[in-house]
Amino acid sequence: MTIKTERVGAWPFSRIGGLAGLGFALIIVGANLILLPADMPLIGAGVDEVVTFFTTKAVPAQLSSACTPAAWLCVVVFGAAAVATIWPRERAAGSAWSLVGFAGLLLQTATFVGVVAIRLALSATSDHTPAATAGLWAMHNALFTLNGVFLATAMLGLSVGGLRTALIPRWHAVLGIVAAAAQFVSASITPMVIDHEGPLGLISFVSWLLWVVWLVAYGIALMRLRPERQPLVA
Hints:
234 residues, 0% strand, mainly alpha, 10 helices
């Protein structure tokens, strides 16, 4: 046990951060898979559908929310590892894209705390009158959709920073920038997205899937990084 502990303690921080990135991706996918069979109302769903879900299927929402604290811890460690890897080289070149990306990760985490808090409030409250539910659900939808701008910031910053320091390949950076652009567009049209269910919500969904792929690839890149092969600024 001591030998194994020492080995883990000797891991470079980039490997720990890479594992945290993979853990974050796994947890958020798992949390959504809990909600999927329960028919969690989509953004823009009517109040009656929301009331029905949170009065009859509150348990899946609570189980999904229970996963999120671990996810938030993982994403902060992942972001810190990315910055620790990229920032020293960026600083020498007078750049700070990794800090932009880390700021996006922190802001998206803070915003999603609000999203999860509203879900828990809807699950726990005994007041499911249309007026009370409509207010909470509207706030949930607005925060959920606007959070796209912070996901965009995270992917843009870490994609550009990772590419410039040769931490990630060009295709990975392009994937992140494309997903970031889609998330930014989705956040910019929030009033139209949350007004009612429609195809505009697919922009956020597709870009979220790209975000997960981007995360997994970034986590693997950090895990495979050797101390003697620290990235250089291009």
